[in-house]
Amino acid sequence: MTAAFECEVRFLIPDIAVFQARLCALGASHLERYAFTDHYYCPREGAWNSRTHALRIREWREPARASELLVTRIEVVRVGDLACKRSLFPEGKVQLYRGPVDECERVCDALGFTAWLDVVKSECGICDLPGLGKAIYEHVRGLGWTSEVEVEGSDPGSALARIGEKLDALGIARDAVTDTPLAVLLAERLGLLPERAGP
Fold this sequence. Notes:
The protein has helices at about 15-25, 100-110, 155-170, 180-190, and strands spanning about 5-10, 30-45, 55-60, 65-80, 80-85, 95-100, 115-130, 135-140, 145-150, 175-180. It has four helices and ten strands.
Protein backbone atom coordinates (compact mmCIF):
# COMPACT_ATOMS: atom_id res chain seq x y z
CA MET A 1 0.00 0.00 0.00
CA THR A 2 2.27 2.77 -1.18
CA ALA A 3 1.02 6.10 -2.55
CA ALA A 4 2.79 9.31 -3.54
CA PHE A 5 3.85 11.22 -0.39
CA GLU A 6 1.86 8.61 1.54
CA CYS A 7 -0.12 9.91 4.51
CA GLU A 8 -0.98 7.38 7.19
CA VAL A 9 -2.51 6.89 10.61
CA ARG A 10 -2.54 3.63 12.55
CA PHE A 11 -4.84 2.22 15.21
CA LEU A 12 -5.10 -0.86 17.38
CA ILE A 13 -7.97 -3.29 16.79
CA PRO A 14 -9.51 -4.42 20.11
CA ASP A 15 -11.59 -7.20 18.50
CA ILE A 16 -10.51 -8.52 15.11
CA ALA A 17 -13.80 -10.36 14.51
CA VAL A 18 -15.78 -7.14 14.97
CA PHE A 19 -13.42 -5.26 12.65
CA GLN A 20 -13.63 -7.93 9.95
CA ALA A 21 -17.42 -7.89 10.22
CA ARG A 22 -17.32 -4.12 9.68
CA LEU A 23 -15.24 -4.60 6.54
CA CYS A 24 -17.75 -7.15 5.24
CA ALA A 25 -20.62 -4.76 5.94
CA LEU A 26 -18.80 -2.12 3.88
CA GLY A 27 -18.59 -4.52 0.93
CA ALA A 28 -14.97 -5.68 1.26
CA SER A 29 -13.73 -7.67 -1.73
CA HIS A 30 -10.56 -9.12 -3.31
CA LEU A 31 -8.99 -10.13 -0.01
CA GLU A 32 -5.26 -10.81 -0.28
CA ARG A 33 -3.16 -12.41 2.45
CA TYR A 34 0.40 -11.40 3.28
CA ALA A 35 3.02 -11.78 5.99
CA PHE A 36 6.50 -10.36 6.46
CA THR A 37 9.07 -9.33 9.03
CA ASP A 38 10.58 -5.86 9.00
CA HIS A 39 14.11 -5.89 10.43
CA TYR A 40 14.83 -2.31 11.55
CA TYR A 41 18.33 -0.88 11.75
CA CYS A 42 19.94 2.15 13.38
CA PRO A 43 23.42 3.69 12.99
CA ARG A 44 26.28 2.29 15.05
CA GLU A 45 27.27 5.88 15.82
CA GLY A 46 25.69 9.32 15.71
CA ALA A 47 22.21 10.70 16.18
CA TRP A 48 19.19 8.84 14.85
CA ASN A 49 15.55 9.75 15.25
CA SER A 50 13.45 6.61 14.83
CA ARG A 51 10.27 8.71 14.81
CA THR A 52 11.23 10.37 11.53
CA HIS A 53 13.75 8.01 9.89
CA ALA A 54 13.67 4.28 9.20
CA LEU A 55 15.99 1.80 7.51
CA ARG A 56 14.61 -1.74 7.37
CA ILE A 57 14.90 -5.05 5.61
CA ARG A 58 11.50 -6.39 4.62
CA GLU A 59 11.70 -10.18 4.65
CA TRP A 60 8.65 -11.54 2.84
CA ARG A 61 7.03 -14.79 3.96
CA GLU A 62 3.73 -14.55 2.05
CA PRO A 63 3.79 -14.20 -0.87
CA ALA A 64 7.32 -15.53 -1.39
CA ARG A 65 9.51 -12.82 -2.94
CA ALA A 66 12.94 -11.25 -2.61
CA SER A 67 13.69 -9.21 0.48
CA GLU A 68 13.86 -5.42 0.17
CA LEU A 69 16.04 -2.84 1.88
CA LEU A 70 13.78 0.18 2.40
CA VAL A 71 14.38 3.70 3.68
CA THR A 72 11.69 6.14 4.79
CA ARG A 73 11.66 9.65 6.17
CA ILE A 74 8.49 11.26 7.49
CA GLU A 75 7.01 14.39 8.99
CA VAL A 76 3.88 14.81 11.09
CA VAL A 77 1.12 16.89 9.52
CA ARG A 78 -1.89 18.12 11.51
CA VAL A 79 -5.19 19.68 10.45
CA GLY A 80 -7.76 20.29 13.18
CA ASP A 81 -8.10 17.28 15.49
CA LEU A 82 -6.34 14.84 13.17
CA ALA A 83 -2.62 14.29 12.56
CA CYS A 84 -0.87 11.82 10.26
CA LYS A 85 2.63 10.82 9.32
CA ARG A 86 3.55 11.92 5.79
CA SER A 87 6.41 10.62 3.69
CA LEU A 88 8.97 13.20 2.62
CA PHE A 89 9.87 11.02 -0.37
CA PRO A 90 7.42 11.21 -3.30
CA GLU A 91 7.54 7.42 -3.71
CA GLY A 92 6.92 6.77 -0.01
CA LYS A 93 9.27 3.90 0.77
CA VAL A 94 12.49 4.04 -1.27
CA GLN A 95 13.99 0.67 -2.18
CA LEU A 96 17.78 0.75 -1.79
CA TYR A 97 18.40 -2.92 -2.54
CA ARG A 98 16.56 -6.14 -3.38
CA GLY A 99 17.85 -9.65 -2.78
CA PRO A 100 18.41 -12.29 -0.09
CA VAL A 101 18.24 -11.19 3.55
CA ASP A 102 21.94 -11.80 4.17
CA GLU A 103 22.89 -9.57 1.24
CA CYS A 104 20.60 -6.82 2.56
CA GLU A 105 22.28 -7.20 5.95
CA ARG A 106 25.70 -6.72 4.34
CA VAL A 107 24.50 -3.49 2.74
CA CYS A 108 23.29 -2.24 6.13
CA ASP A 109 26.64 -3.11 7.67
CA ALA A 110 28.49 -1.30 4.87
CA LEU A 111 26.35 1.77 5.53
CA GLY A 112 27.30 1.71 9.21
CA PHE A 113 23.99 0.40 10.53
CA THR A 114 23.30 -2.32 13.09
CA ALA A 115 20.19 -4.39 13.87
CA TRP A 116 17.72 -2.73 16.25
CA LEU A 117 14.19 -4.20 16.21
CA ASP A 118 12.14 -6.86 14.42
CA VAL A 119 8.49 -6.14 13.60
CA VAL A 120 6.83 -9.47 12.80
CA LYS A 121 3.52 -9.24 10.93
CA SER A 122 1.32 -12.29 10.39
CA GLU A 123 -2.27 -13.18 9.50
CA CYS A 124 -2.44 -9.95 7.48
CA GLY A 125 -5.15 -9.10 4.98
CA ILE A 126 -5.77 -6.32 2.49
CA CYS A 127 -9.09 -5.73 0.74
CA ASP A 128 -10.94 -3.20 -1.41
CA LEU A 129 -13.80 -1.15 0.00
CA PRO A 130 -16.21 0.41 -2.51
CA GLY A 131 -15.67 4.17 -2.64
CA LEU A 132 -13.06 4.06 0.13
CA GLY A 133 -10.04 2.25 -1.32
CA LYS A 134 -7.90 -0.26 0.53
CA ALA A 135 -8.30 -1.52 4.08
CA ILE A 136 -5.90 -3.74 5.99
CA TYR A 137 -5.46 -5.65 9.22
CA GLU A 138 -2.24 -7.10 10.62
CA HIS A 139 -1.24 -9.06 13.69
CA VAL A 140 2.00 -7.62 15.08
CA ARG A 141 3.91 -9.82 17.51
CA GLY A 142 4.14 -8.04 20.86
CA LEU A 143 1.50 -5.47 19.97
CA GLY A 144 -1.62 -7.29 18.77
CA TRP A 145 -4.02 -6.54 15.92
CA THR A 146 -3.54 -3.24 14.13
CA SER A 147 -4.74 -1.45 11.02
CA GLU A 148 -3.79 1.67 9.11
CA VAL A 149 -5.48 4.19 6.88
CA GLU A 150 -3.19 5.37 4.10
CA VAL A 151 -3.92 7.81 1.27
CA GLU A 152 -2.01 9.74 -1.36
CA GLY A 153 -0.59 12.87 0.26
CA SER A 154 0.54 15.41 -2.34
CA ASP A 155 -2.00 17.76 -0.73
CA PRO A 156 -1.81 17.09 3.04
CA GLY A 157 -5.05 18.93 3.80
CA SER A 158 -7.03 16.86 1.31
CA ALA A 159 -5.26 13.72 2.51
CA LEU A 160 -6.31 14.29 6.11
CA ALA A 161 -9.89 14.94 4.99
CA ARG A 162 -9.92 11.60 3.14
CA ILE A 163 -8.38 9.85 6.14
CA GLY A 164 -11.14 11.31 8.31
CA GLU A 165 -13.84 10.05 5.94
CA LYS A 166 -12.34 6.57 5.93
CA LEU A 167 -12.06 6.49 9.73
CA ASP A 168 -15.72 7.51 10.00
CA ALA A 169 -16.76 4.71 7.64
CA LEU A 170 -14.74 2.20 9.68
CA GLY A 171 -16.23 3.50 12.93
CA ILE A 172 -12.85 4.57 14.33
CA ALA A 173 -12.74 7.56 16.69
CA ARG A 174 -10.14 10.29 16.08
CA ASP A 175 -8.62 9.76 19.52
CA ALA A 176 -8.03 6.07 18.73
CA VAL A 177 -5.49 6.75 15.97
CA THR A 178 -1.82 7.67 16.14
CA ASP A 179 0.75 9.22 13.83
CA THR A 180 3.56 7.37 15.62
CA PRO A 181 5.43 4.89 13.38
CA LEU A 182 4.66 1.25 14.09
CA ALA A 183 8.26 0.37 15.01
CA VAL A 184 8.27 3.14 17.62
CA LEU A 185 4.96 1.94 19.09
CA LEU A 186 6.38 -1.55 19.47
CA ALA A 187 9.75 -0.33 20.77
CA GLU A 188 8.02 1.81 23.40
CA ARG A 189 6.04 -1.20 24.59
CA LEU A 190 9.17 -3.37 24.72
CA GLY A 191 11.41 -0.66 26.18
CA LEU A 192 13.73 -0.77 23.17
CA LEU A 193 13.54 2.79 21.86
CA PRO A 194 16.99 4.11 20.84
CA GLU A 195 18.13 6.98 23.01
CA ARG A 196 20.40 8.55 20.39
CA ALA A 197 17.64 10.70 18.93
CA GLY A 198 18.67 13.79 17.02
CA PRO A 199 17.45 16.23 14.40
